[in-house]
Design brief:
Chain lengths: ~250, ~80
Protein backbone atom coordinates (compact mmCIF):
# COMPACT_ATOMS: atom_id res chain seq x y z
CA UNK A 1 0.00 0.00 0.00
CA UNK A 2 2.81 2.38 0.82
CA UNK A 3 4.19 2.53 -2.69
CA UNK A 4 0.77 3.43 -4.09
CA UNK A 5 0.67 6.54 -1.93
CA UNK A 6 2.67 9.55 -2.89
CA UNK A 7 2.73 12.73 -0.90
CA UNK A 8 0.42 15.40 -2.26
CA UNK A 9 1.87 18.73 -3.36
CA UNK A 10 -0.40 20.74 -1.10
CA UNK A 11 0.55 18.68 1.94
CA UNK A 12 4.24 19.16 1.12
CA UNK A 13 3.66 22.90 0.85
CA UNK A 14 1.81 23.14 4.17
CA UNK A 15 4.49 21.05 5.85
CA UNK A 16 7.22 23.28 4.50
CA UNK A 17 5.28 26.36 5.57
CA UNK A 18 4.09 25.30 9.02
CA UNK A 19 6.25 22.30 9.94
CA UNK A 20 9.12 24.13 11.62
CA UNK A 21 7.05 26.67 13.62
CA UNK A 22 4.72 23.89 14.79
CA UNK A 23 7.66 21.68 15.78
CA UNK A 24 9.11 24.58 17.73
CA UNK A 25 5.72 25.18 19.37
CA UNK A 26 5.42 21.51 20.38
CA UNK A 27 8.98 21.67 21.68
CA UNK A 28 7.79 24.12 24.35
CA UNK A 29 5.61 21.36 25.80
CA UNK A 30 8.45 18.85 25.69
CA UNK A 31 7.28 16.95 22.59
CA UNK A 32 10.19 16.12 20.31
CA UNK A 33 9.48 15.99 16.56
CA UNK A 34 11.92 13.83 14.62
CA UNK A 35 11.30 15.14 11.11
CA UNK A 36 9.96 18.71 11.14
CA UNK A 37 9.63 18.82 7.33
CA UNK A 38 7.17 15.88 7.08
CA UNK A 39 5.26 15.53 10.29
CA UNK A 40 1.82 17.04 9.59
CA UNK A 41 -0.21 14.12 8.20
CA UNK A 42 -2.18 14.59 4.99
CA UNK A 43 -5.61 13.99 6.55
CA UNK A 44 -5.07 16.80 9.07
CA UNK A 45 -4.34 19.19 6.21
CA UNK A 46 -7.47 18.04 4.36
CA UNK A 47 -9.60 18.42 7.51
CA UNK A 48 -8.29 21.96 7.89
CA UNK A 49 -9.13 22.74 4.26
CA UNK A 50 -12.70 21.52 4.76
CA UNK A 51 -13.04 23.47 8.00
CA UNK A 52 -11.77 26.68 6.42
CA UNK A 53 -14.02 26.19 3.39
CA UNK A 54 -17.09 25.61 5.58
CA UNK A 55 -16.33 28.61 7.79
CA UNK A 56 -15.89 30.88 4.77
CA UNK A 57 -18.91 29.51 2.90
CA UNK A 58 -21.28 29.55 5.86
CA UNK A 59 -19.95 32.91 6.99
CA UNK A 60 -20.57 34.42 3.56
CA UNK A 61 -24.01 32.83 3.39
CA UNK A 62 -25.11 34.23 6.75
CA UNK A 63 -23.45 37.63 6.50
CA UNK A 64 -26.40 39.56 5.10
CA UNK A 65 -29.41 37.69 6.39
CA UNK A 66 -32.65 38.94 4.97
CA UNK A 67 -36.30 38.00 4.85
CA UNK A 68 -35.94 37.81 1.08
CA UNK A 69 -32.85 35.61 0.91
CA UNK A 70 -30.04 35.94 -1.59
CA UNK A 71 -29.05 32.94 -3.73
CA UNK A 72 -26.34 31.74 -1.34
CA UNK A 73 -28.55 32.15 1.68
CA UNK A 74 -31.45 30.25 0.14
CA UNK A 75 -29.16 27.34 -0.82
CA UNK A 76 -27.87 27.16 2.75
CA UNK A 77 -31.41 27.39 4.12
CA UNK A 78 -32.46 24.46 1.95
CA UNK A 79 -29.52 22.34 3.12
CA UNK A 80 -30.19 23.12 6.77
CA UNK A 81 -33.91 22.48 6.30
CA UNK A 82 -33.05 19.03 4.95
CA UNK A 83 -31.14 18.25 8.17
CA UNK A 84 -33.96 19.73 10.23
CA UNK A 85 -36.52 17.59 8.43
CA UNK A 86 -34.49 14.46 9.13
CA UNK A 87 -34.25 15.33 12.83
CA UNK A 88 -37.97 16.12 13.08
CA UNK A 89 -38.78 12.82 11.35
CA UNK A 90 -36.74 10.74 13.79
CA UNK A 91 -37.06 12.65 17.08
CA UNK A 92 -40.07 14.95 16.76
CA UNK A 93 -40.48 18.69 17.10
CA UNK A 94 -37.99 19.01 19.96
CA UNK A 95 -35.32 17.51 17.69
CA UNK A 96 -34.73 20.91 16.12
CA UNK A 97 -32.29 21.91 18.86
CA UNK A 98 -29.80 19.27 17.70
CA UNK A 99 -29.47 20.83 14.24
CA UNK A 100 -26.09 22.58 14.89
CA UNK A 101 -24.24 19.39 15.84
CA UNK A 102 -25.89 17.15 13.25
CA UNK A 103 -25.57 19.63 10.38
CA UNK A 104 -21.92 20.34 11.18
CA UNK A 105 -21.05 16.65 11.29
CA UNK A 106 -23.08 15.93 8.17
CA UNK A 107 -21.50 18.71 6.12
CA UNK A 108 -18.01 17.78 7.31
CA UNK A 109 -18.41 14.09 6.49
CA UNK A 110 -20.09 14.83 3.16
CA UNK A 111 -17.37 17.24 2.02
CA UNK A 112 -14.71 14.87 3.35
CA UNK A 113 -16.10 12.03 1.27
CA UNK A 114 -16.24 14.09 -1.90
CA UNK A 115 -12.92 15.94 -1.52
CA UNK A 116 -10.99 12.86 -2.60
CA UNK A 117 -12.47 13.07 -6.10
CA UNK A 118 -10.63 16.31 -6.87
CA UNK A 119 -7.15 15.55 -8.22
CA UNK A 120 -4.48 16.68 -5.79
CA UNK A 121 -6.62 16.10 -2.72
CA UNK A 122 -7.52 13.04 -0.65
CA UNK A 123 -10.50 12.11 1.48
CA UNK A 124 -9.78 12.65 5.17
CA UNK A 125 -12.56 10.16 5.90
CA UNK A 126 -10.50 7.39 4.30
CA UNK A 127 -8.39 7.36 7.49
CA UNK A 128 -9.71 5.62 10.59
CA UNK A 129 -8.47 8.42 12.86
CA UNK A 130 -10.85 10.98 11.37
CA UNK A 131 -13.93 8.75 11.26
CA UNK A 132 -13.30 7.46 14.78
CA UNK A 133 -13.04 11.06 15.96
CA UNK A 134 -16.41 11.91 14.39
CA UNK A 135 -18.00 8.76 15.82
CA UNK A 136 -16.66 9.47 19.32
CA UNK A 137 -18.10 13.00 19.08
CA UNK A 138 -21.51 11.46 18.33
CA UNK A 139 -21.04 8.93 21.17
CA UNK A 140 -20.23 11.55 23.82
CA UNK A 141 -22.86 13.93 22.46
CA UNK A 142 -25.82 11.55 22.55
CA UNK A 143 -25.00 10.33 26.06
CA UNK A 144 -24.67 13.91 27.25
CA UNK A 145 -27.97 14.91 25.63
CA UNK A 146 -29.68 11.84 27.08
CA UNK A 147 -28.47 12.73 30.58
CA UNK A 148 -29.54 16.34 30.08
CA UNK A 149 -33.00 15.37 28.86
CA UNK A 150 -33.78 12.71 31.49
CA UNK A 151 -31.41 13.28 34.39
CA UNK A 152 -28.40 11.10 35.14
CA UNK A 153 -30.11 8.53 37.38
CA UNK A 154 -33.09 7.97 35.12
CA UNK A 155 -30.83 7.71 32.07
CA UNK A 156 -28.58 5.12 33.70
CA UNK A 157 -31.64 3.16 34.83
CA UNK A 158 -32.41 2.51 31.15
CA UNK A 159 -29.38 0.26 30.96
CA UNK A 160 -30.95 -2.22 33.38
CA UNK A 161 -33.81 -3.17 31.11
CA UNK A 162 -37.46 -3.56 32.05
CA UNK A 163 -37.13 -6.52 34.48
CA UNK A 164 -35.02 -5.94 37.65
CA UNK A 165 -34.23 -9.65 37.98
CA UNK A 166 -32.51 -9.70 34.59
CA UNK A 167 -30.42 -6.59 35.31
CA UNK A 168 -27.07 -8.43 35.78
CA UNK A 169 -27.55 -9.91 32.31
CA UNK A 170 -28.90 -6.77 30.66
CA UNK A 171 -26.26 -4.31 31.88
CA UNK A 172 -23.32 -5.95 30.04
CA UNK A 173 -25.45 -6.50 26.94
CA UNK A 174 -26.56 -2.86 26.87
CA UNK A 175 -23.02 -1.66 27.54
CA UNK A 176 -21.68 -3.76 24.67
CA UNK A 177 -24.39 -2.53 22.32
CA UNK A 178 -23.64 1.10 23.23
CA UNK A 179 -19.88 0.71 22.84
CA UNK A 180 -20.29 -1.08 19.52
CA UNK A 181 -22.03 1.96 18.07
CA UNK A 182 -18.96 4.20 17.55
CA UNK A 183 -17.02 1.17 16.29
CA UNK A 184 -19.59 0.30 13.65
CA UNK A 185 -20.14 3.97 12.72
CA UNK A 186 -16.44 4.65 12.19
CA UNK A 187 -15.58 1.35 10.50
CA UNK A 188 -18.49 1.67 8.08
CA UNK A 189 -17.51 5.14 6.91
CA UNK A 190 -13.79 4.36 6.85
CA UNK A 191 -14.25 1.07 4.98
CA UNK A 192 -16.49 2.51 2.29
CA UNK A 193 -14.39 5.57 1.55
CA UNK A 194 -11.06 3.74 1.81
CA UNK A 195 -12.26 1.01 -0.57
CA UNK A 196 -13.57 3.57 -3.02
CA UNK A 197 -10.29 5.53 -3.03
CA UNK A 198 -8.22 2.35 -3.38
CA UNK A 199 -10.42 1.15 -6.25
CA UNK A 200 -10.00 4.41 -8.14
CA UNK A 201 -6.23 4.38 -7.58
CA UNK A 202 -5.89 0.79 -8.79
CA UNK A 203 -8.10 1.32 -11.85
CA UNK A 204 -6.28 4.55 -12.70
CA UNK A 205 -2.93 2.80 -12.44
CA UNK A 206 -4.07 0.20 -15.00
CA UNK A 207 -5.74 2.49 -17.54
CA UNK A 208 -5.56 6.16 -16.62
CA UNK A 209 -7.93 7.41 -19.34
CA UNK A 210 -11.75 7.29 -19.14
CA UNK A 211 -11.94 3.98 -17.25
CA UNK A 212 -11.88 5.59 -13.75
CA UNK A 213 -14.81 7.84 -14.67
CA UNK A 214 -17.67 5.39 -13.93
CA UNK A 215 -16.00 4.49 -10.65
CA UNK A 216 -15.71 8.15 -9.73
CA UNK A 217 -19.40 8.60 -10.51
CA UNK A 218 -20.07 5.65 -8.23
CA UNK A 219 -17.85 7.29 -5.60
CA UNK A 220 -20.08 10.38 -5.59
CA UNK A 221 -23.04 8.09 -4.97
CA UNK A 222 -21.44 6.08 -2.16
CA UNK A 223 -19.99 9.22 -0.57
CA UNK A 224 -23.42 10.83 -0.40
CA UNK A 225 -25.04 7.65 0.88
CA UNK A 226 -22.41 7.14 3.57
CA UNK A 227 -22.68 10.73 4.79
CA UNK A 228 -26.45 10.28 4.94
CA UNK A 229 -26.09 6.99 6.85
CA UNK A 230 -23.77 8.68 9.35
CA UNK A 231 -26.23 11.52 9.95
CA UNK A 232 -29.26 9.20 10.07
CA UNK A 233 -27.64 6.89 12.63
CA UNK A 234 -26.57 9.86 14.77
CA UNK A 235 -30.19 11.06 14.73
CA UNK A 236 -31.43 7.59 15.69
CA UNK A 237 -28.94 7.38 18.58
CA UNK A 238 -29.94 10.81 19.89
CA UNK A 239 -33.61 9.83 19.54
CA UNK A 240 -32.99 6.66 21.55
CA UNK A 241 -31.17 8.58 24.26
CA UNK A 242 -33.64 11.43 24.76
CA UNK A 243 -36.85 9.42 24.32
CA UNK A 244 -39.00 9.63 27.44
CA UNK A 245 -41.22 6.62 26.84
CA UNK A 246 -40.09 3.09 27.61
CA UNK A 247 -39.54 1.69 24.12
CA UNK A 248 -36.25 2.64 22.50
CA UNK B 1 -30.87 22.23 -13.80
CA UNK B 2 -30.78 24.53 -10.77
CA UNK B 3 -34.56 24.27 -10.47
CA UNK B 4 -34.31 20.50 -10.50
CA UNK B 5 -31.68 20.63 -7.76
CA UNK B 6 -33.91 22.82 -5.62
CA UNK B 7 -36.80 20.41 -6.09
CA UNK B 8 -34.62 17.46 -5.09
CA UNK B 9 -33.51 19.29 -1.96
CA UNK B 10 -37.08 20.21 -1.06
CA UNK B 11 -38.21 16.58 -1.02
CA UNK B 12 -38.18 14.88 2.35
CA UNK B 13 -35.10 12.64 2.37
CA UNK B 14 -36.67 9.82 4.35
CA UNK B 15 -39.02 8.72 1.58
CA UNK B 16 -36.63 8.23 -1.30
CA UNK B 17 -35.19 4.91 -2.34
CA UNK B 18 -31.70 6.07 -1.39
CA UNK B 19 -32.65 6.31 2.23
CA UNK B 20 -33.85 2.71 2.13
CA UNK B 21 -30.40 1.67 0.89
CA UNK B 22 -28.86 3.75 3.66
CA UNK B 23 -31.04 2.24 6.37
CA UNK B 24 -30.51 -1.35 5.29
CA UNK B 25 -26.76 -0.98 4.79
CA UNK B 26 -26.50 0.50 8.27
CA UNK B 27 -27.58 -2.83 9.79
CA UNK B 28 -24.76 -4.86 8.28
CA UNK B 29 -22.03 -4.00 10.78
CA UNK B 30 -24.09 -4.28 14.00
CA UNK B 31 -23.38 -7.96 14.64
CA UNK B 32 -19.60 -8.10 14.04
CA UNK B 33 -18.88 -4.86 15.92
CA UNK B 34 -20.84 -6.08 18.95
CA UNK B 35 -18.90 -9.35 18.98
CA UNK B 36 -15.59 -7.48 18.70
CA UNK B 37 -16.49 -5.13 21.56
CA UNK B 38 -17.62 -8.11 23.68
CA UNK B 39 -14.37 -9.95 23.02
CA UNK B 40 -12.37 -6.84 23.89
CA UNK B 41 -14.27 -6.35 27.18
CA UNK B 42 -13.74 -10.01 28.07
CA UNK B 43 -10.04 -9.86 27.22
CA UNK B 44 -9.50 -6.76 29.34
CA UNK B 45 -11.46 -8.24 32.25
CA UNK B 46 -9.37 -11.41 32.02
CA UNK B 47 -6.20 -9.36 32.14
CA UNK B 48 -7.50 -7.41 35.10
CA UNK B 49 -8.96 -10.27 37.15
CA UNK B 50 -6.61 -13.04 36.02
CA UNK B 51 -9.44 -15.43 35.17
CA UNK B 52 -8.26 -16.35 31.68
CA UNK B 53 -10.05 -17.58 29.57
CA UNK B 54 -13.48 -17.56 31.22
CA UNK B 55 -14.39 -13.89 30.90
CA UNK B 56 -13.42 -13.88 27.22
CA UNK B 57 -15.73 -16.82 26.55
CA UNK B 58 -18.58 -15.32 28.60
CA UNK B 59 -18.31 -11.91 26.98
CA UNK B 60 -18.09 -13.46 23.53
CA UNK B 61 -21.54 -14.92 24.07
CA UNK B 62 -22.80 -11.69 25.65
CA UNK B 63 -21.51 -9.78 22.64
CA UNK B 64 -23.26 -12.12 20.25
CA UNK B 65 -26.51 -11.76 22.20
CA UNK B 66 -26.13 -7.98 22.25
CA UNK B 67 -25.49 -7.91 18.51
CA UNK B 68 -28.60 -9.99 17.83
CA UNK B 69 -30.70 -7.81 20.12
CA UNK B 70 -29.56 -4.58 18.48
CA UNK B 71 -30.04 -6.14 15.03
CA UNK B 72 -33.62 -7.08 15.91
CA UNK B 73 -34.20 -3.60 17.37
CA UNK B 74 -32.90 -2.01 14.18
CA UNK B 75 -35.10 -4.24 12.03
CA UNK B 76 -38.12 -3.40 14.17
CA UNK B 77 -37.40 0.31 13.91
CA UNK B 78 -37.40 0.20 10.12
CA UNK B 79 -40.31 -2.17 9.73
CA UNK B 80 -42.25 0.23 7.56
CA UNK B 81 -39.82 0.59 4.65
Amino acid sequence: MEELEHSLGLVEFINRLLGKPLAWFLGIFGIEVHDPAHFIPDYVVMCLIIAIFLILFLGLASRKRDLVPSKLQSVMELILEAFEGLLVDTIGEEGKKYVPMIATLGLFVFLGNLLGLIPGFMSPTSKLNVTLGCALCVFVYYHWQGMRAQGVGKYLKHFMGPIPLLAPLMVPIELISHFSRPISLSIRLFGNIFAEELLIVVIASIIPFFLPLPFMALAIFTGTIQAFVFVLLSCIYIAGAVAHEEEH
Amino acid sequence: MIKWGFQMLKKKPSRTNYSKIAVVSSLALLLPSSIIVGLFFGYMLDKWLGTSPWMTILFFFLGTASGLISLLRGLNRHKDI
